[in-house]
Amino acid sequence: MARSSLPIPPPLEGNDELIAAVITGGWVIALIVLLLERSQLAPSDRWWVWVAVAGCCIGAFGLGYVPLLKRSRQRAAGRQTAHASDSI
Q1: What pLDDT digit, counting tens, does each position of 11-67 carry?
Q2: In whole angstroms, how far apart are CA 75 and each of 15, 45, 55, 71, 87?
Q3: Residues 21 and 63 sit within 8 Å (Cβ to Cβ)
Q4: What whole-number distance in Å separates Cα of residue 86 and Cα of residue 88?
Q5: Can you tell me whether residue 9 is helix, strand or coil?
Q6: pTM value?
Q7: C-alpha to C-alpha distance for 56 and 28, rounded to whole angstroms
Q8: C-alpha to C-alpha distance for 73 and 76, rounded to whole angstroms
Q9: What is the DSSP letter of 46?
Q10: Distance between CA atoms of 12 and 14, rounded to whole angstroms?
């Protein structure tokens, strides 16, 4: 018996800036907690502070880069639409 195939749903769209902000906020909170509890961390576990610092830095980069990427994609889509309408 043949399987009926359902149409594949389109991918879900998310608010990229909000996602980047929430994740960066999580890294900031982790960094604050680690800095407050630094004296209770074993010397071999203090590298976690640098992990949180790296997460904050990468998140800050993402907060700046995501809007730039979205504007670039919109311009490219506009150029592609204009090019497609010119060739018709």
Answers
A1: 888 999 999 999 999 999 999 999 999 999 999 999 999 999 999 999 999 999 999
A2: 19, 46, 30, 6, 18
A3: yes
A4: 6
A5: coil
A6: 0.75
A7: 6
A8: 5
A9: T
A10: 7
Query: Quick one: tokens of 55?
Result: 């997460």
Read off the tokens for 53.
């610092």
How far apart CA 3 and CA 48 sit, in angstroms, is 51
Can you tell me the distance from the alpha carbon of 86 to that of 28, in angstroms, rounded to the nearest whole number?
A: 49
Q: Which amino acid is present at 20?
A: A
Tokens 């997460």 correspond to 55
Round to whole Å and give the CA distance between 19 and 67: 12
Q: Name, in order, each residue with C-beta under 8 angstroms of 52's C-beta and a sequence gap of 6 or more.
A: 27, 30, 31, 34
Q: How many Å apart are CA 53 and CA 47, to the nearest integer?
A: 10
- 15: Cα separation from own chain's centroid: 10
- How many CB atoms within 10 Å of residue 82? 10
